[in-house]
Structure formats: C-alpha cells, structure tokens
C-alpha cells in the first residue's frame, strides 16, 4: 500500500493577500477605463457645442451682413434704432446693420422673434461699433464708413 502525502492546508486555494491584490489591480483598471470613457464623452460634447456655437454665430452674422450698411430712410444720422423703429427685443423690424447694436437673445431667436427650439442653454448677441478705416481697433462716435461686427455665442 502506497502512502499518500497530503499537501499542507496553507497551500490550497487563494490567500486573502492574493484576493486583495487582484481586487486592487482590477479596481485600478476599472478606474482607468472609466476615466477614458469620461474624457471621450467630454471631448465629444465639446465638439458638438463648438459646432453648434459656430452654426449659431454664422447664421446671425449672415443675417447682419445681408442688411444694408445704412438705414434706407435716415441714412447714417442715427446709430442703432431709428426713431420710428420698435425696440421690443425682436429683430424682424431691423432694416440696417447698426440696428443689431447690443441686440441679444437667450435662447437664440429666429428673425421673426420666435425662439429656436432645442437651444435653451444658449445665448447669442451682436455688437456693432463704428471704427476708423485705417485703425480697426479704434472705436469712433461719428460715421466713418466702417462698422466692426462682433457676434458672440455662449452655452450656459
């Protein structure tokens, strides 16, 4: 009859130390994976926001640039709203570029004053400034023949 040698009890299965180490390794890998997923989602949202903001800015800039430089009735006598134009927050009555001076809307609006759907967190506004024709960074109070147009779009 052959004698069988039995293994000591301590060498069978996992030890508590091995379990703790493997749990730490798996946990660290999960944290790293979640950080990668979170960073990629943040980058995706940033790209979507950048595209949306650019679209909103280009849309308003195109509308402003389609307007005449000076008012059809008053010419360049007034800067901003002319006396017979309503200043009611909508732009459907705008008839020249400088009517957009300091105009803003949150959420963004269509030209007829209705809100754009799906843009509740967005705001856009325009600034129009008369500038010197040979020094565009210098704002002027009188008519110079050049207007600097700035469109700003923000989210949150």
Explain what this protein looks like in three dimensions:
About 30% of the residues lie in helices and about 15% in strands. The protein has about 160 residues and is of the alpha+beta class. Strands 1, 2, 3 and 4 form a four-stranded antiparallel sheet that branches. It is rod-shaped and about 115 Å long.
Structural topology:
Elements: H1 16-65, E1 104-105, E2 122-132, E3 135-139, E4 147-155
Antiparallel strand pairs: 1-2, 2-3, 2-4
- Profile the largest sheet: 4 strands, antiparallel
* Unreliable sequence segments: none
What is the H/E string? Answer: HEEEE
Beta-strand content bin: 15-25%
* Radius of gyration from CA coordinates: 32 Å
Main traits of this protein?
156 residues; 4 strands
Short description:
It is built from 1 helix and 4 strands; from the N terminus they run αββββ. The chain has one helix at 16-65, and strands at 104-105, 122-132, 135-139, 147-155.
